[in-house]
């Protein structure tokens, strides 16, 4: 080749590369292709990564437009991806947000795929105009449920065109949940909870933080970080458009939470794993590059810069072999934080080689809430014959407490720190209340009665435990009930606000006080009840209420948070047993 033709060839090649680079990068204020100009048979190109952070063009052809597919005036462009790689992988998890161009102009983002168990490269494109609108939407979405982007039925005329069977539909492309440090045991317990949000959990990696992490362009991938530290979980999506310090991605919701503040990190694609069931990108995450601010039906949006603060979680696991500590931080989200706390706690527990399923676990947790008394959770958890690990009970207990705090109707709590200490105790520490009796059933005020309880331990000989019960001097003559029970029975049934779903409290502090007053389950309780009304006002108990006050309460139709119970607690006694106690037994006592 002569020098002149060779020079001309290099110039042409350089121009082609420049044009390609301009399309991929899309620059600030990218040129947009209006939906009204999209026609069946039109050829276009999508940009995505199959491996090695190399953004590649994927040719496509328009099949048609699905009008009002996601809702009123929310259309979807139905396309077919072309080429060897598209035929091999189909529309893979992680392709959500891959920018689609016609004539070098941005038309939208690949967001939907054809059903499951198919590698047919049929996808749905969210128009770019609908993605850009998320910036101006109100703070809260109309719904915040898993899989907020609904299934889109495929009309028969399009199904016949692509040789699909009847009843086919488009679904949001799965979001890869990139995990590092996640044990198989944890995934087995929580996999269904995570997949309910449209996320496919898979092993990933943590890439070294680089100054170039924030240098992203359309077609690159980002991770929405949920947990970081000794365990990391990030939901991965492809960037569709960048304008100034804003970016748009996914083309569908990740969770559908509306206005959010989630950290965003740079994500890297290691490879795309082809599968007949569900192809997916295998990814890793790097440094924090910004904050996700909107999570909507047609897109997610964020800004570049420093990420938001996260909640620190410190887990200390004390086993017979020694002490092991884990440190995490997680997003603050009323919908997800309770689940993420449970995942991190359980992962920390099973992460110790010394942890065994035959052990009893003692949990002590403290949750610091800004402006409020810390939430204290203390309990003992013994393994049972059910196929549920004891560590799972710890995680569920912590999750339940968080759900109560976050679901309160009074204010949005600001959790500042979580501390969890789990101690492994030898042996299976659990006993069931078998029988109970009092040394005498007729008593006088001020008299002490010995109550004997027969307990049956797990695979052991029954043993006897005594509880001295002193009848209060102010006890009125008549028949009383002496309830010998575990903590769970008392917390749920005896003068507890848990007994009524209609209880109303003045604020979050009162709810925290109720949580902190719940009885630990490693004690044996004896509670003396009398058939006299008790009024519960806010988080306070007013026993032995006169009938005149009850009539006033009825006339005012239960003002505020007042409730009426038809029993009053005369006294409560307990004995520490150093093991989980279960069951209850009721005795009749007559005061002379």
What oligomeric assembly is this protein in?
single chain
Silhouette: elongated
- Tally of helical segments: 10
Helical amount: 10-25%
What integer is the average pLDDT? 83
How many separate domains?
Answer: 4
- The secondary-structure class comes to alpha+beta
**Percent of residues in beta strands:** 35-45%
Based on CA atoms alone, the radius of gyration comes out at 31 Å
How do the strands line up in the largest sheet? 1-2-3-6-5-4
Distance between the termini: 119 Å
Biggest β-sheet strands, sense, barrel = 6 strands, antiparallel, barrel
Strand tally: 34
Uncertain regions: pLDDT < 50 for 5+ in a row? 1-27, 497-502
């Amino acid at each position: 080749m002569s020098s002149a033709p060779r020079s001309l060839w290099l110039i042409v090649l350089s121009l082609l590369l420049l044009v390609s680079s301009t399309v991929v990068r899309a620059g600030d204020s990218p040129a947009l292709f209006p939906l009204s100009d999209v026609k069946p048979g039109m050829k276009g190109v999508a940009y995505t990564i199959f491996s090695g952070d190399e953004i590649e063009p994927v040719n496509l052809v328009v099949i048609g437009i699905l009008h009002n597919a996601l809702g009123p005036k929310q259309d979807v462009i139905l396309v077919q991806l072309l080429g060897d790689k598209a035929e091999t992988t189909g529309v893979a998890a992680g392709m959500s947000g891959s920018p689609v161009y016609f004539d070098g102009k941005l038309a939208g983002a690949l967001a939907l795929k054809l059903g499951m168990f198919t590698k047919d490269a049929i996808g749905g494109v969210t128009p770019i105009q609908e993605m850009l609108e998320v910036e101006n939407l109100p703070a809260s979405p109309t719904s915040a449920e898993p899989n907020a982007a609904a299934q889109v039925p495929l009309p028969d005329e399009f199904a016949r065109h692509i040789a699909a069977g009847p009843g086919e539909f488009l679904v949001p492309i799965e979001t890869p949940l990139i995990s590092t440090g996640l044990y198989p045991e944890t995934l087995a317990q929580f996999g269904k909870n995570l997949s309910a949000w449209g996320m496919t959990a898979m092993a990933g990696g943590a890439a070294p933080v680089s100054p170039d992490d924030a240098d992203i362009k359309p077609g690159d991938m980002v991770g929405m970080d949920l947990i970081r530290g000794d365990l990391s979980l990030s939901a991965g999506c492809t960037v569709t458009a960048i304008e100034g310090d804003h970016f748009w991605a996914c083309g569908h919701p990740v969770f559908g939470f509306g206005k959010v503040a989630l950290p965003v990190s740079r994500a890297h694609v290691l490879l795309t794993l082809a599968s007949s069931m569900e192809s997916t990108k295998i990814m890793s995450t790097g440094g924090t590059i910004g904050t996700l601010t909107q999570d909507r039906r047609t897109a997610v949006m964020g800004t570049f810069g420093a990420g938001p603060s996260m909640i620190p979680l410190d887990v200390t696991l004390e086993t017979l072999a020694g002490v092991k500590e884990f440190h995490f931080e997680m997003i603050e989200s009323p919908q997800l934080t309770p689940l993420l706390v449970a995942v991190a706690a359980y992962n920390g527990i099973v992460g110790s080689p010394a942890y065994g399923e035959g052990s009893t676990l003692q949990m002590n947790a403290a949750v610091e809430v800004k402006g409020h008394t810390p939430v204290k959770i203390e309990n003992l958890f013994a393994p049972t014959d059910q196929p549920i690990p004891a560590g799972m009970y710890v995680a569920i207990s912590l999750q339940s407490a968080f759900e109560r705090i976050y679901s309160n109707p009074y204010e949005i709590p600001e959790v500042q720190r979580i501390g969890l200490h789990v101690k492994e105790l030898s042996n299976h520490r659990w006993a069931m209340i078998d029988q109970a009796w009092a040394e005498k059933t007729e008593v006088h005020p001020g008299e002490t009665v010995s109550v004997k309880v027969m307990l049956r331990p797990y695979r052991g000989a029954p043993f006897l435990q005594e509880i001295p019960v002193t009848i209060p001097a102010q006890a009125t003559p008549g028949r009383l009930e002496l309830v010998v029970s575990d903590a769970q029975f008392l917390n749920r049934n005896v003068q507890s606000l848990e007994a009524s779903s209609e209880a109303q409290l003045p604020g979050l502090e009162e709810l925290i006080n109720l949580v902190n007053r719940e009885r630990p389950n490693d004690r044996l309780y004896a509670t003396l009840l009398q058939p006299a009304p008790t009024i519960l006002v806010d988080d306070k108990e007013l026993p032995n209420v006169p009938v005149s006050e009850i009539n006033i309460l009825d006339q005012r139709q239960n003002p505020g948070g007042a409730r009426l119970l038809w029993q009053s607690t005369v006294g409560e006694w307990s004995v520490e047993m150093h093991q989980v106690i279960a069951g209850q037994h009721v005795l009749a006592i007559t005061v002379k």
